[in-house]
Specification:
The chain is an alpha/beta fold. The chain is built from 6 helices and 8 strands, in the order E-H-E-H-H-H-E-H-E-E-E-H-E-E.
């Protein structure tokens, strides 16, 4: 299978996925987000159509039906609504039918920054979270918002973790 990991390459995840015989494509979507939109007014800059297109081409320029799975981690909550819609369309397009997408969302609906993590798959039962600062989300997602976000997909399952994160598993 081909798996897209959007948390940036790390040796533990590479070893785990390739050890199962799969191909892994990796990029850090938040780094691309900062590079394209800057850090001054990143959410205001996300409404710029030319920058949004540059971001999509930089982060998600893959052929249709190319991936069997996507590891999004906690990136979706850092997109303005219009850019988020474009990202979701692109993700739907690059995923093969019946493939899976995994995402995380902070469960606390509070204003202000939330912790960011680098995620590493250590083994079939363990995901390691290494702190990498904080960032203020563009928006917060409750269960209904998650259902709407993934409405074009075949199914959505979400679970609340002990770390106050919602794990979301989506099938195209």
């Amino acid at each position: 299978m081909r798996i897209l990991d959007l948390a940036g390459a790390n040796q533990q995840t590479v070893s785990f996925v390739t050890g199962l015989g799969h191909q892994l494509y990796s990029d850090d979507m938040l780094v691309v987000l900062d590079r394209v939109f800057g850090t001054g007014e990143p959410y205001a800059n996300q409404t710029n159509r030319a920058l949004a297109e540059e971001f999509l081409e930089s982060a998600l320029d893959f052929p249709a039906d190319h991936f069997d799975g996507v590891l999004l981690w906690d990136t979706l909550q850092f997109f303005e609504p219009a850019l988020l819609t474009a990202v979701m369309r692109r993700l739907h397009r690059v995923l093969r039918p019946s493939s899976f997408l995994f995402a995380l969302f902070h469960a606390a609906e509070r204003s202000g920054p939330v912790p960011l993590y680098s995620y590493r798959i250590a083994d079939p039962r363990t995901i390691l979270m290494q702190p990498r600062g904080e960032r203020t989300p563009s928006q917060y997602f409750n269960n209904r918002d998650l259902e709407r976000l993934f409405q074009d997909f075949a199914s959505v399952k979400f679970f609340l973790t002990r770390d106050a994160l919602r794990e979301v598993i989506v099938r195209r």
